[in-house]
Amino acid sequence: MSGIIINIDPVIFHLGAFALGWYGLAVTLAIVAAVLIAVHQGKRRGIDTTEIQSLALWAVIAGIVGARLFHVIDQWQYYAANPLQILQFQQGGLAIWGALVGGGVATIAYARTRHIPLGRLVDALAPALLTAHIIGRFGCIINGDAYGGVTSLPWGFIYTHPNALIPLSLFGRPTHPYPVYEIIWNGLALLVVWQLGRYFKQDSLVFLSYLSLYSLGRFVLTFVRQENVILWGLQQAQIIAMLTLVASLVAMTYLVTRRPLPEKLTEP
């Protein structure tokens, strides 16, 4: 049996009833990094720093709620039998698509309330979101909650710690290191989006590029994941990725090809 052994306790330390896990630490670092990058990108686009900081609070709360909700729905059979585990999100189980939906709703509401151009705002958030994806997946590596199928490849992950969240059927067996695959893909996507931010002049195109790249990677890479198949042989994340990819490409095509409306003639 060849592979990379992961024998790290997902919990760093306990302090009474509180437990600090590697996953929670990674998510916290991801949020901090995302806010710092969003502030930097917002300044470049003329958005006040305080606006980004204020939005961050609401977007994070809505994102966590959405992420947990999507995960619970996807794993409803387990949570229906263990309802008290629904609130134990610090142990893992945050669906990124749910975070994007929840955070997206908060961002749209905030932009409308504060009269900030939505396209310009989300363009500032795109590199920040990709960075958060990358950092967050490092927590998944230790947690074992984003696992792939069994593999004979030499870089497969073998989870041997009893507290790892990988299913018993995969415990001690080499599995595809899905978090690493996504880290690599998102890293490449970040480089592309960062460069596009200097090239695109029209609002929303950077964000739509991020959605397209992330959706494409998520759809393809999820084939090696082990989650519930819900439709057409596809998992929940793949269906959402497919729909998002199509919608973002259509939106980009419309923005790039549309002609500006002719100016109205004024009477002398």
Distance between the termini: 85 Å
Number of E strands = 7
Stretches with pLDDT under 50, minimum 5 residues: none
Read across the widest sheet, the strand sequence of neighbours is 1-4-5
Quick one: biggest sheet? Answer: 3 strands, mixed
- Name the helicity range: 55-70%
What is the count of structural domains?
1
Backbone CA Rg: 20 Å
Number of helices: 8
Give the structure's gist in a few sentences.
The protein is mainly alpha-helical. The protein has helices at 22-44, 49-74, 76-81, 96-114, 118-143, 178-199, 205-221, 236-257, and strands at 4-6, 11-15, 18-21, 157-159, 174-175, 229-231, 234-235.
Description:
- With 268 residues, the chain is mainly α.
- Helices cover 60% and strands 8% of the residues.
- The protein has helices at residues 22-44, 49-74, 76-81, 96-114, 118-143, 178-199, 205-221, 236-257; strands at 4-6, 11-15, 18-21, 157-159, 174-175, 229-231, 234-235.
- The chain starts with a strand and ends in an 11-residue tail after the last helix.
- The mean pLDDT is 85.
Keywords:
268 residues; mainly alpha; 3-stranded mixed beta sheet; two-stranded antiparallel ribbon; 8% strand
Which helices and strands, and how do they pair?
Elements: E1 4-6, E2 11-15, E3 18-21, H1 22-44, H2 49-74, H3 76-81, H4 96-114, H5 118-143, E4 157-159, E5 174-175, H6 178-199, H7 205-221, E6 229-231, E7 234-235, H8 236-257
Parallel strand pairs: 1-4
Antiparallel strand pairs: 2-3, 4-5, 6-7
